[in-house]
Amino acid sequence: MRQEIDAGLPEPRQPFAWAIRSGGLIFTTHGPVRPDGTILQTGIREQARLALENLRRTMEQAGGSLDGVVQATVYLLDAADMAPVDEVYREFFQPPYPNRASVVVAGLVAPGMRFEIQAIAALPG
């Protein structure tokens, strides 16, 4: 059974939920989306930081924390962004890190978006 988690973000214009709880797991994807629904149009560090803050807030809303993230997939437009993204990532995650894949793609859905993260997390209990 699926339960939608309020991520504190506006209703998506596309048919998806920001986060879903199923059993003791959270499935969620975040980009550099501001509370008004617009995309933060800045550098990669700022975009990654906002997306990870959105992920943290979502986990807290679900009753968990970033410590519960067990799998992450990072999507980037440019492989050169990996080093600055890793710097920001370390602000949010400490060892042992979640398992992670990093993928360079030709484009992301919103113009100006350079970073997206998909995560699977286990809730406490």
Structural features, described:
With 125 residues, the chain is an alpha+beta fold. It has one domain: RutC-like (60s Ribosomal Protein L30, Chain: A), CATH 3.30.1330.40. The protein is 23% helix and 27% strand. The protein has two helices and six strands, in the order βββαβαββ. The chain has helices at residues 44-61, 82-92, and strands spanning 3-4, 19-22, 25-30, 69-76, 99-104, 115-122. It has a six-stranded mixed β-sheet, covered by helices on one side. Strand 4 (69-76), helix 2 and strand 5 form a beta-alpha-beta unit. Helix 1 packs parallel to helix 2. The chain starts with a strand and ends with a strand. The model has no long low-confidence stretch (mean pLDDT 97).
Strand content: 25-35%
> From the 3D coordinates, which CATH architecture would you assign?
2-Layer Sandwich
The class by helix and strand makeup works out as alpha+beta
- Strand tally is 6
So how many helices?
Answer: 2
* Integer average pLDDT: 97
The end-to-end span amounts to: 18 Å
From the spread of the alpha carbons, the general shape counts as: globular
CATH superfamily: RutC-like
How many distinct domains?
A: 1
Kindly state the percentage of residues in helix: 10-25%
CATH topology description: 60s Ribosomal Protein L30, Chain: A
In the CATH scheme, the class would be Alpha Beta
Stretches where pLDDT is under 50 for at least 5 consecutive residues are none
User: What strand order characterises the main sheet?
Assistant: 1-2-3-6-4-5
Radius of gyration from CA coordinates = 14 Å
What letter string, H or E per element, gives the SSE order?
Answer: EEEHEHEE
